[in-house]
């Protein structure tokens, strides 16, 4: 097993150049950058003498656990991508950490970031997940990161929704390529809340082939400058914004007309009113007065009307109905 120790640091070429003028202890106290990438390291030993360390490169190794970094209160950049890390842990003392690179590990849950009050960049792309699983996000960590995080890389993690990321309203860059995102309405809703988003890369997601995909996202993201590697022309953006505003206004007007018609004609919304059939007419209950001088004849309804021998009405009314041609 290869461990990152003070002894291993003393064998580095950088210390060899400085050893003539200072001791190892002095060298370690002054050390700000430490690069042990691609050294087959499996574990991190006690490095508490490196109290001024600000940048640590440990990518392309075989580290399985983040540990023994509690001393590094001045650390701002930590590069641990392409290792065997399965859990994000033991980072609570890194209050100055602004960039964290953990891509290419075997992490299944983004968690353990609650105390990282200065984190601006988080890279967790390409996790080696079990078949059929996706990367998920702990709400507590996302809530805390919402105050600081600007750049997020979650590409190649089988992610099919981003509702959990909605609180990250200070994001300026999102890299989410090669996932399973497909709900355009969900993306519009979430991205419209990220008022500072300037770069968005969703290449190789199912949503990219949806109708009006690019137009809809440009409209939702008011200051977006780059979508899927293509710059956004300001004139085109303004045209799309105006087009959407016009479309929404027309829809609102049409909806208002529909509601007004429903109020004015309530029966037409609930019943099918077919053509009215004429009422049956009993010829025996009517008599027709012949037309005179070419005038149309007049039919008098005498339903429920009885007359005496002199032709006077005893009850009912006469209803004149014109017949014939004019």
Defining traits:
326 residues, alpha/beta, Leucine-rich repeat, LRR (right-handed beta-alpha superhelix), 2 domains, 10-stranded mixed beta sheet, 3-stranded antiparallel beta sheet, 17% strand, elongated, LRR_dom_sf
Question: What is the strand and helix layout of this fold?
Answer:
Layout: E1 2-4, H1 6-10, H2 13-18, H3 24-30, E2 33-35, E3 41-44, E4 55-57, E5 77-79, E6 99-101, E7 109-110, E8 121-123, E9 136-137, H4 139-145, E10 151-153, E11 173-175, H5 184-191, E12 199-201, H6 213-220, E13 226-227, E14 230-231, H7 234-264, E15 286-289, E16 298-301, E17 306-307, E18 313-315, E19 319-322
Parallel strand pairs: 1-3, 2-4, 4-5, 5-6, 6-8, 7-9, 8-10, 10-11, 11-12, 12-13
Antiparallel strand pairs: 13-14, 15-16, 16-19, 17-18
Helix pairs in contact: 5-6, 6-7
Class per helix and strand makeup: alpha/beta
Terminal CA distance reads 114 Å
Which class of the largest domain in CATH terms?
A: Alpha Beta
| SS element count, helices | 7
Arrangement of strands in the largest sheet:
2-4-5-6-8-10-11-12-13-14
Number of domains: 2
Major sheet: 10 strands, mixed
Report the average pLDDT across residues.
83
Kindly report the CATH topology of the largest domain. Leucine-rich repeat, LRR (right-handed beta-alpha superhelix)
Number of strands: 19
Helix and strand string, N-terminal first? EHHHEEEEEEEEHEEHEHEEHEEEEE
Radius of gyration, taken over Cα atoms and rounded to an integer in Å? 40 Å
Bin the strand percentage. 15-25%
CATH architecture descriptor text of the largest domain: Alpha-Beta Horseshoe
């Amino acid at each position: 097993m290869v461990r990152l120790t003070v002894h291993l640091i003393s064998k580095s070429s950088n210390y060899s150049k400085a050893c003539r003028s200072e001791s190892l202890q002095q060298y370690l106290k002054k050390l700000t950058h430490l690069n042990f990438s691609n050294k087959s390291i499996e574990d991190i030993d006690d490095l508490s003498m490196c109290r001024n360390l600000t940048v640590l490169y440990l990518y392309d190794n075989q580290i399985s656990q983040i540990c023994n970094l509690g001393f590094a209160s001045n650390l701002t950049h930590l590069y641990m991508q392409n290792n065997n890390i399965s859990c994000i842990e033991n980072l609570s003392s890194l209050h100055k950490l602004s960039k964290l690179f953990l891509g290419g590990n075997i992490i299944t849950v983004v968690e353990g970031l609650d105390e990282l009050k200065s984190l601006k960049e988080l890279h967790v792309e390409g996790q080696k997940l079990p078949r059929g699983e996706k990367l998920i996000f702990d709400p507590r960590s996302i809530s805390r990161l919402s105050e600081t995080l600007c750049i997020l890389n979650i590409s190649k993690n089988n992610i099919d929704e981003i509702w959990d990321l909605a609180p990250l309203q200070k994001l300026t860059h999102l890299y989410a390529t090669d996932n399973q995102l497909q709900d355009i309405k969900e993306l519009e809703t979430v991205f419209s809340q990220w008022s500072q988003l300037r770069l968005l890369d969703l290449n190789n997601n199912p949503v990219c082939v949806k109708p009006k995909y690019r137009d809809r996202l440009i409209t939702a993201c008011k200051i977006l400058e780059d979508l899927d590697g293509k710059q956004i022309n300001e004139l085109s953006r303004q045209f799309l914004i105006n087009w959407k505003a016009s479309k929404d206004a027309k829809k609102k007007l049409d909806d208002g007309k529909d509601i007004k018609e429903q109020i004015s004609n309530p029966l037409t919304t609930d019943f099918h009113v077919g053509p009215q059939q004429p009422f049956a007419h009993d010829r025996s209950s009517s008599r027709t007065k012949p037309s005179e001088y070419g005038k149309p004849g007049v039919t008098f309804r005498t339903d429920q009307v009885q007359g005496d021998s002199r032709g006077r009405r005893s009850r009912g009314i006469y209803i004149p109905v014109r017949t014939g041609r004019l």
